[in-house]
Amino acid sequence: xxxxxxxxxxxxxxxxxxxxxxxxxxxxxxxxxxxxxxxxxxxxxxxxxxxxxxxxxxxxxxxxxxxxxxxxxxxxxxxxxxxxxxxxxxxxxxxxxxxxxxxxxxxxxxxxxxxxxxxxxxxxxxxxxxxxxxxxxxxxxxxxxxxxxxxxxxxxxxxxxxxxxxxxxxxxxxxxxxxxxxxxxxxxxxxxxxxxxxxxxxxxxxxxxxxxxxxxxxxxxxxxxxxxxxxxxxxxxxxxxxxxxxxxxxxxxxxxxxxxxxxxxxxxxxxxxxxxxxxxxxxxxxxx
Length: 288
Known about the structure:
alpha+beta; 5-stranded antiparallel sheet; 4-stranded antiparallel sheet; 11 helices; 12 strands; 36% helix
């Protein structure tokens, strides 16, 4: 299929109409950090491209009493520079701050990071840990999908992701993130883990959600580690046993994969960093 035309989308409604008309022959482009490479390598050959980078309603960051909503066209830089993502949402800030180069962070969008479907998408594990949902729109109407289910129930060819929404953490909950890349500059995640953990006054874990990137076919919850950590107080022994729990889970999930030995070793450092950062962040949050 040869690219015949590029549309500059002026509104979500216009884009939905074009997607309904062209279906599989159309591709959306915003920051272009992933899709331009795929076009260059002929991994995708759309008939038309629809540029959604100038649609203002996709660039909004909204906050109400209980929720934060990110338009799908919000860039990593816009998240980094917004004070909403300091404090106990530092893990999302950190994940966006560790995406590639400044140029990639300026162009890359949170919606594109999700839509690309990579298991190593930096922005996705923190959002899964937060219990985020995505909202899509097509000529058939809207859908709201839990982000952790998105990689099973993927975007249809006539849909556009319009926003990502999550509940604000409680005051006793802290979101952390750790990543292992090939190298610090421009690193693409080889492994990443995000945790949203709530502690009671005695430091006991009373709520926990952990999500990983690149430890499977797609970003996912690490429920066995969550079950192990609940109602425990983090210390060296608990960290070591949590690492063993994750490694045992990986042994089954990645059985026969040549990357398993490397990932078993590598995951110990990022889960440790994640849990130790929780303790450090708790002290800082208590000081706010």
